[in-house]
Amino acid sequence: QCGSCWSFSTTGAIEGARFISTDVLTSLSEQQFLACTPFGNCNSEDPYIAMRWAANNSLCSEESYPYDPPSGKPYPPPPPLVCHADNCTIVVPQGAVQGYRFVSSHSEEALRAAVARQPISVGILSSALAQYKSGIISGYCASTINHAVLVVGYGTDTSSGQARPYWKVKNSYGPGFGEDGYFRVLRNDSACTNYKTGGMAILSSPVYPVLW
């Protein structure tokens, strides 16, 4: 009911980048992004805008400022969320996030090189996730996006006797979704060649945070 996928994609990207540079993994507060940003309040947003905001603000831990979205139907919209970050535990000080950078769009190789360095926020068309349980999603081609997720890795599945390259993607639906909260998308999906955006439009707008 809450359009908060962008906040999960953003916090995951920052958490991953911070872990790579410091060897410390701490969950960040999605609620802070929803309640304390001028563009939040369950409104769908682009992760790069959230990363730009993070460059000018300190970031709270999830433990000290837990996720608590408004309940109920999306229409009429719920009342505005109130920011309660004053007493949270600061994990990422202001200035630690220096901004964001886009990965070259429409490029499997560019995304693979970027994911080899750190998790990457991407937009996808989410229709294929409605019935997803496990396995590699293929043949779902799109040029539009409506859901933000986090690409955390890539690999090759040979369980069927054929080598099938895939992206491993973290969703924001919780550990009960798919493969322990993750799903896989076929890389270099030949069915989507004409779209240039990859399966589920995963190559449309990859972006990652820059940390000092």
Describe it for me?
The chain has 212 residues and is an alpha+beta fold. It has two domains: 5-98, Alpha-Beta Complex (Cathepsin B, Chain A), CATH 3.90.70; 101-211, Cysteine proteinases (Cathepsin B, Chain A), CATH 3.90.70. It is 19% helix and 22% strand. It has helices at residues 5-22, 30-36, 47-54, 108-115, and strands at residues 59-60, 90-92, 97-102, 120-124, 136-137, 147-157, 164-170, 182-186, 207-211. A five-stranded mixed β-sheet has the order 4-6-7-8-5. Helix 1 crosses helix 2 and helix 1 crosses helix 3. The radius of gyration is 17 Å and the shape is globular. The model has no long low-confidence stretch (mean pLDDT 94).
